[in-house]
Amino acid sequence: MQVKYDKIGINYNETRKADKYLTERLIHHLKPVNYELYLDIGCGTGNYTSEMEIKGMNLIGIDPSEEMLTKAKNQNSNVDWRIGSVEKTRLSENSIDGIVATLTIHHWSNLINGFKELNRVLKSQGRIVIFTSTPEQMRGYWLNHYFPKMLSDSIDQMPSFEKVKDAMEKNNISIEKTEKYAIRQDLQDQFLYCGKEFPDLYFNDQIREGISSFSSLANQKEVDEGLLKLKKDVETGHINNIMKSYENQLGDYLFIVGKSE
Question: Which residue(s) pair with 99 in the sheet?
Fold first, then answer.
């Protein structure tokens, strides 16, 4: 995992910028209090961490990638950046008031161990806000039509809501609420389904390089063939039929808000 994200991290900030709306929702669900200490686990290059710090939060950002953290440190020296993982944060027990985990839980090697460690460092009644996508939601992405193997592999590594809920509850973290998120046209963070309404985005090499599904999971032959097929459908307008056939009410991503006992 570290090697994968050291590679992705080289140009990550070019396309993976903190989205204003998503930042606002993370803060809304976390309900931070001045002078309390918060953790961004799997913070990557720290774009969301930095945006939350700018809005007044006191934060620790933890990630296993040296490359990612180097970029994080260069953009904001006010955050306490640390090498680590969800299973081994090296933080003191009951030292954190709240936690955010943005598009990271599918990279955890073990959900139960990860939540066990987060519950250990989280204070009683502390919130944890997770932003993720479920396998059910991902099956509704029209990308499945053009990159079926890549999406299948991505879905396989994505834990279901039921598995996340079970792992949280086994570690004394109850789910307070969930909130669906559908891709907005002004999205600034170019993650996997960023091109839901703008298929041309996937022709951009930098955007694909910043998405782990394309840069690490995908077979290059399938990507090349899928892009050719997509390009043809965009030119003929057939893409509109494909997109319409995948319309659903599941939402594209999901906020999961939990609270420790």
Answer: 39, 128
**Selection from 214, 209, 223, 253 nearest residue 13 by Cα:** 209
pLDDT for 2 beyond 50: no
HSE on the CB side for 83, CA within 13 Å? 7
Amino acid (one-letter) located at 238: H
Domain 2-260 part of CATH 3.40.50.150: yes
Note the pLDDT tens digit of each residue in 65-84.
Answer: 999 999 999 999 999 999 99
Nearest to 141 by CA among 222, 254, 251: 251
Cα–Cα distance between 30 and 176 in angstroms, integer? 11
Task: Return the beta strands (E) in 135-220 as ranges.
Answer: 173-181
Pairing mode of beta strands 122-132, 96-102: parallel
Burial label for 117, CB within 10 Å (0-12, 13-18, 19+), is buried
- Dist CA 208 CA 110 (whole Å): 27
Q: Do residues 104 and 131 touch, judged by C-beta distance below 8 A?
A: no
Percent of the chain clearing pLDDT 90 (strictly above)? 92
Is residue 6 pLDDT above 70, yes or no? Answer: no
Cross-strand partners of 98: 38, 127
Closest residue by Cα to residue 172 from 115, 222, 213, 130: 115
Q: Supply the pTM of this predicted model.
A: 0.94
Q: What is the pLDDT of residues 100-138, one digit of tens each?
A: 999 999 999 999 999 999 999 999 999 999 999 999 999
